[in-house]
Specification:
This protein is an alpha+beta fold. Helices cover 20% and strands 36% of the residues. The chain has four helices and 17 strands.
């Protein structure tokens, strides 16, 4: 099986899980269809990321992917982002994503987020607009399950940082400011700036929807 990594929070809940004790089992097919759209268009700047939002009821202990005959490891990181394979055979074999969590697993879910593939300390206007345009195009391709219930026009970009990095200094066209949380810039603000510089790289760049 090709276990190539494929990688909005537009908290699109992808699951109606069957709950067994502290575990959830989720059909792989839904994830495959989302990944199929992304791979079909080969977006250069953005990707789809799946994650289990972290809280006291949703701390991952382990996970795997199973079919009737096989079992495969589920790769995830400390932020509980899931790195899923793009594999037609796994869909055909009716694969299941099995996630074991602490707490009440019925309160857990899986979120899907469009984000930039990588982040930078410095951006030009053109680079930011290219990222935003790629996000718009990807989201248009995600119409249907489940995004038709969540899709709104992108209003700009959101720059997020890990809690340990805050506050963060950001300089826009020579004007420095300190942000305590995330930075959100509207499309109009993006069109009017020339450069933006952070003192640390954002951990995530994602769509801003008003």
């Amino acid at each position: 099986m090709n276990l190539k990594k494929s990688s909005i929070i537009f908290a699109a809940m992808l699951i109606s899980p069957s709950v067994i004790a502290d575990s959830v089992s989720i059909p792989y097919a839904g994830f495959y269809e989302r990944l199929k759209q992304v791979n079909k268009h080969n977006y250069q700047l953005v990707e789809v990321a799946f994650s289990v939002p972290k809280n006291k009821n949703c701390e991952m202990i382990s996970g795997n992917i199973t079919t009737e005959k096989n079992e495969y490891p589920l790769t995830y990181d400390k932020d509980q982002r899931l790195y899923l394979p793009y594999d037609a055979q796994l869909k055909s074999d009716r694969g299941l994503l099995n996630i074991e969590v602490t707490g009440d697993s019925s309160l857990c879910g899986v979120a899907m987020q469009v984000r930039a593939k990588s982040t930078q300390i410095k951006y030009s206007k053109e680079e930011l607009i290219d990222v935003k345009n790629d996000m718009d195009a990807l989201l248009d391709g995600q119409q249907g399950f489940p995004m038709k219930y969540f899709r709104k026009p992108i209003s700009g970009l959101t720059f997020s940082f890990s809690g340990s990095e805050l506050p963060v200094a950001v300089t826009i066209d020579g004007n420095k400011q300190v942000i305590q949380e995330q930075l959100q810039l509207t499309s109009e603000q993006l069109d009017n700036l020339q450069t933006i510089i952070f003192d640390v790289k954002p951990s995530i760049v994602s769509p801003y929807v008003m």
